[in-house]
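Give me the fold.
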Amino acid sequence: MRDVDGVYHAYLGRLGASSVLVRPDHHVFGTAEPGGTAALVDELRAQLQDAPLAAAR
């Protein structure tokens, strides 16, 4: 993604983070400090594996 207006860069700077993981519904799952992106993705993966499946319609 390209941050043409610098909004994300400023947001991440305030948090001391280098990356942000945003869910498809546009909610922030989490942020990571430099070098922590893999751990953030691992946490998402773990939560998805533990989540119950939605009932079929």
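The chain has a mean pLDDT of 88.
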